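re the bet — no i am not wrong, look at it urself. input seq straight from the record:
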Amino acid sequence: MAQPATATGLPTPYSDPLRFEGAAAAARSRLLLVARRAVVRLLTHVLPLMLAVTVGAFLLIHSAKGSVVDVMTSEMQLSDPATIAHLNAVYGLDQPLLVQLLRYIWSVARLDLGFSYRQGMSVVSAIMLHLPATLLLMAAAILVAASIGILGGVAASRRPNGWLDRSISVAAVMLFAAPSFWLGILLVVLFSVHLGWTPVGDMRTIGLDDSPLANLLDLLHHLALPALALGLHKSAIYLRVTRNAMIGTGRADFVRTARAKGLTERAITFRHVLRNAMIPVVTVIGLQFATVLSGSIVVEAVFNWPGLGGLLFDSAMARDYPLVLGIVIIGSTIVILVNLLVDLVYTWLDPRMADR
């Protein structure tokens, strides 16, 4: 059978019908494997974890002194016992704790996280107003951390135990030892107070109503310092993982074969070694997602970033328990789903992971 050819006269990779059917069957088999693992992980890991997070957060918050009714009556200077009893009944606080817990679990199962009296809207609506800012900060911080960590790790692995490797390793230890909020304060003092290059805080310049490009540049201008404060701390981990993975992969047989073929060190590093060394780095990024989320909440407080951090702090101070619980549950859900996604990517890359 004549095979279709490309413009160069060479057959395409899928010009052979048998080869194409084999590749399609393998892709379908791998997709079914990933779907089956997703269902199994959802039933055996995600749902039990979500239930445990909900119960744990509910019991922990309700173990604290004071309630939303206490704050409301204090702010409105109410002392009438009948009014206080009515408010307790409205918020279900007159019921036993177990009844309140079961009602809350049933409400979460119906995707109803309650109502925030402090924000005057549903908990989901209040979170959706602030969640994009937090996700933007997290994405920018991970980009900064991965870029600095990978480039630093590659540079350090070129001459193990050399002066550059030692200098980068010392810098990585210093960055890892420095908390994100402390780095944020240093960056503000240096770049905002002394040099005046960046704004002190907030997400955009008040009163700015310019073109979309000007608004985007203004957003990036405000985002630079928070992303650096959070990303520099995380880059130390990516740097150490990249360095060790690059050194380990550089000793593999296929790298020696590539050198024997006469490939340049630059081609070997970026075409062969770095691609294989990225697998553990991706693993760390997935595992570090939870710490990036918690770190972003702290950094938001330093830079007055309008994300979930400020909302969580205000809600906790006001005993707005439905909103606090909602933020905890939404944040936990994001972390659990990201880890599930990483697990599914592994299964797609290496089907043997499905048996583990």
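see?? Residues 1-14 have pLDDT under 50 and may be disordered. told u. also The longest strand covers residues 115-116. so pay up
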